[in-house]
């Protein structure tokens, strides 16, 4: 029988400016940096799956992409999607998809670091 994978256990967004992207995640999403990160990335203390922003891999040029991550949907759990929605909107963050009910609780999508679309749900 072939070996199988268990599923994602680390997620990172490639960005031009690691520090600016990390600051966005801290300031607007309340993420906390993990105790240890490699020199080319900032890893956050998220559970159950670690999340990071990292420098571009060799050969990656996001300038050619109108929207980085197009085709990939990243969902983040929050205790109160409605409150987070209002907090981000009040901070001038672009809401890409309005707050709606879903099988996973209230959800909405917003523009994250460097134009990535992120979805928050819960609460």
List keywords for this structure.
single chain, four-stranded mixed beta sheet, three-stranded mixed beta sheet
Q: What can you tell me about this protein's structure?
A:
- The chain is an alpha/beta fold.
- The chain is built from two helices and seven strands.
- The chain starts with 10 loop residues before the first strand and ends with a strand.
- The mean pLDDT is 94.
What is the number of strand segments?
7
Termini separation comes to: 41 Å
- Percent of residues in helices comes to 10-25%
How are helices and strands ordered from N to C?
A: EHEEEHEEE
Structural class estimated from helices and strands: alpha/beta
Overall residue-averaged pLDDT value? 94
* Overall form: globular
What are the SSEs and their pairings?
Layout: E1 11-15, H1 18-29, E2 41-44, E3 51-55, E4 74-77, H2 81-90, E5 95-100, E6 107-111, E7 117-121
Parallel strand pairs: 1-3, 4-7
Antiparallel strand pairs: 2-3, 5-6, 6-7
Task: Report a brief summary of the structure.
This protein is α/β, with parallel strands linked by helices.
């Amino acid at each position: 029988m072939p070996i199988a994978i268990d599923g994602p256990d680390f997620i990172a967004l490639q960005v031009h400016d690691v520090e600016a992207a990390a600051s966005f995640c801290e300031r607007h999403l309340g993420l906390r940096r993990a105790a240890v990160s490699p020199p080319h990335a900032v890893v956050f203390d998220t559970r159950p799956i670690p999340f990071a922003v990292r420098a571009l891999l060799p050969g990656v040029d996001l300038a050619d992409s109108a929207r980085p991550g197009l085709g990939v949907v990243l969902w983040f759990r929050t205790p109160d999607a409605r409150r987070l929605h209002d907090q981000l909107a009040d901070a001038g963050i672009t809401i890409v998809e309005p707050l709606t009910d879903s099988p996973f609780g209230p959800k909405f999508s917003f523009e994250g670091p460097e134009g990535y679309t992120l979805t928050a749900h819960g609460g």
